[in-house]
Amino acid sequence: MRFLLYRVADSHMKALLLENIEKIRLINIQSPVCDSTETLLKVTYCSVCRTDAKMWSQGQRDLVLPRVLGHEICGHKPNNPAENFIVWPAKTCNQCHYCKNGAENLCSNIQVIGFHIDGGFAQYIKVPKRSLIKIPPTVPPEIACMTELLSSAINATEQVNLQKNQSVLIFGGGPAGLMLGLACKYFGAHPFIVEKNSAKLDQVTPFCKKANISLSNTPAGNFDVAINAAPDPAALIEGISKLNPGGKYCIFSGFTKNMPIPSELLNEVHYRQLTLIGAYGSTKRQMKLALKIIETNTQTLRLLIDKIIPLESVPLVLPEILLGQSLKYVVDLSE
């Protein structure tokens, strides 16, 4: 595996550009120019998501190349460094049925930052004014940039209409699975995270203990809800088999392998009246709620950060993220 990583001189800001699959380079380009609906943001921190690594390695349905990746963004306006913001990473039409009814993540004209338009792996970014959410001074910016991932977890819990005291089986002990566990705790449910990798199991134990989330390598009992935070299709089969009658399965993480769906599995959905539902992205309302949860869990969430890295180190950690050998790398662009 070979990285292309070099600099281009005589420009105004550093950015990490994904030109094609596994072809990423550090460049110098002109700073963005904003229109009347946009704001220029000085990026201070941008955490690296598994989706960023996936886009680097194989692309993604919504990815338009070439692209500056990065959608878990924290920053400030260039003339006001004392006021920090997170970014709801989307630009929507604000006119369609979904936008008018609080489901703007389903807007058919949506443009996602870091997917359709350039993202936060750069010193500056232009964002829709409507996408800015102010960060309380009590929330460190390197923690705040994880709000987007938690908001996506909240979306999943809302899609299954999670109720207090329900039991939730979560497949995958990576950052997404841990955020799902945290969201479940907020809504008064009982999350149970399954992680098959023994090294990862040890790695996430401190987080789960602090957050009071059950963790094991084998699911015990049956559950009201199951959610996959892992791309292995086996999680679908095992999860459906572990649901109580009337239970719900949420597809949170996209599956990476083609798999024929056994008729026996579909019959289980039929006979036990199970619900299969998807969850993708989040709304601005869910981002605001996620920020409130983060404000009261900053020390717990700090356990997710493996290392704070410079922009030029991002290509070096992408393979590690794909192998599931890390939790969260956060890119420091504050200087």
Kindly describe this structure:
There is one protein chain. This protein has 2 domains: 163 residues, Medium-chain alcohol dehydrogenases, catalytic domain (Quinone Oxidoreductase, Chain A, domain 1, Alpha-Beta Complex), CATH 3.90.180; 129 residues, Rossmann fold (3-Layer(aba) Sandwich). Helix 4 packs across helix 5, helix 4 crosses helix 9 and helix 5 runs parallel beside helix 6. The N terminus is likely disordered. Helices cover 30% and strands 28% of the residues. 42% of the residues are buried. The strands form 4 sheets. Strands 3, 5, 6, 9, 10, 17 and 18 form a 7-stranded mixed sheet that branches. Strands 13-12-11-14-15-16 form a 6-stranded parallel sheet, sandwiched between helices. It is an alpha/beta fold and 335 residues long. The longest helix has 14 residues. A hairpin with a 2-residue loop joins strand 1 and strand 2.
